[in-house]
Write the structure tokens for this entry.
Amino acid sequence: MQVSKVNTTVPNKINKINKSENINNKQNTSFKGLGVIDTVSLGVANAIENGGLAVSFTLQDMLGTNLPRPIMGLRRNKKENNGEKNFSFAAKEMVREFLTGPSMFIIPMTMLAIGKRAFGEAINVPMKFIKSFGDIHAKQPLNEAGKAITQEEFYQNAFSEMIKNAKNETEPSADTVSKAKDFAQRLVSNIGGSKKEAKETLTSLTDDFVEISKSHAQDVVHTDFTKAAVSANTAAPFKETVSHMMAYANDVVKKAAKQDTSKLTDFVKNTANKKVIGRNVMNVAMYASVLTFLQIIPKLYNKAEGKDNAGLKGLMKEETFNVDANNNKTDKSKPSFGSAEKVVQTLTSDKGFGKIANAFEFSGPNVSFPLLLGIMGGGILIPRTLRAKDKYDREEILRRDLVTCAVMCFAEKELRKGFSKLNETKSGLVLASKDKGFQDKSLPKKIFEYLRPINGVKVMTTDQIISRYTNIGDYNGGIKGFCDFVSGQGGHLGKVMSLTEESQNIVGGLLQAKGITDITKADNNIITTALDEAKDTEAVQRLISLFKDKNNPWVQKAKTLNARFTALSVLVLVPVFLGFLLPAINERATKKRINKEKELKAANNQNSNSTILNSEYLKKHYKENAIFSDMNQFIK
């Protein structure tokens, strides 16, 4: 949900723009998209951004496999079955698809809900965040009155760390402490309100944090203004960090308030350590539960299909079906731990086992990329292959599921990156973030950065786009900071500024003195210099005001361009390819293999018969020759 920025410290800030300017904004800075198509695209993209992998995977799974594959299953070998529907194969497809995808997210979601009630809300918080919030809490467990700090006071201390890190301060300044106090008060005052009020408050806090980060960033090109760092190795989008902070406070801070103040520091440290270990146990339990259930699914869909491979009906006689029995073995091992402190240090480390533990951590019902690969391999490919009914079934499983896993894990992301690159070239807008030094890399290395599924080039989220293309005068360095961002990330300022007639006229007027008539062909450095030199003029201030609104044309276009391929992929490409083309390819490949085997068998039989006939002829021919030979001997 997007709402207008609310800043309690600077009331009615947006209203400083006069009415005539607002009218001009509406008249001259509208972005015309593709109507309903873009509305649907933005809706799908926003749902995926808000729900993460759980929503993205579920949508692709539902539209690309769950619904179309049973339909294709009914038509399996229809011609060879005299037009009859293949209900057995359709049942197999339905059970397999409707159980696999949803279970990957429903199981951890259910376990987290149960864990939250049984062990406290911190069970939903990632391990690194528990440790970081625990350190902040333990550093100042008492307030000035000598009592355990309240949740609001804890929020203030946590916000102080986030703002301090955003401003690159060694210790929180007086201004940082003041802002943190304001953040905490605003958060607490709206916690008990409606969901709408809570969202508006969180959005308002996010806007103000982005403004702080933007105006103090030492590297305006590569810094993600939407991310809040609680500690040196713990950073996440501000909204997500606040959510973790509140979950920790509702659990540990509440419990600490009931403890003996003389032992409060030790209580906080011990409790945080237990929560980290508990969270790791929950991660392992969720992963093991998902894998265990996925091992059972092949048994269920094979049972729904019946004894024989229904995919072969009409292609060969039933007595020739080859049904294999496969047994799975599980290896259970229990980890051993030393002291809680050492375990926590290991689990939250960026090296060794800690790196692995954090890479395989759940984020709510969402799974990380390494975790997804582990589930795909250990929970889908291996058990399905082992429980294949015959060589034809096994071949189809490998072909179907390898391709499906590759599309789900890699293809959609890489294609989306490529699509954003094409739109960047055409529009001049920066639509994906690149790491430092990207622009200086060779073409093969740049391509590799686009192909990397986790790191490398990342398509910008809606919040990141808003943070970049609103309030451009708040950049560290003013409008020059914004220009440096566009140039440093490979965008084109001339094309960006030509999006609206008014911005084009402003920039064009500044470049006329330099003999440039077409701003879309002007060099980024020339435009940056011209805007920086005129930064205090009314024209440039007017240009900055065009970017104020969160729904300005630049935000609209950037969001829409990124959303189009997401919607195209989820609603069209994935369903068509995975749901219809891939099953058809599997059916055709199996038929082709069986026909070749039949032809080969027939040829072998023919060769065998020919060999027998030739053998009988030779025997007869030899016998006749022998008789004539004897007669000749007799005549002589």
Notes: The beta strands are 227-231, 234-237, 432-433, 458-459. The mean pLDDT is 83.
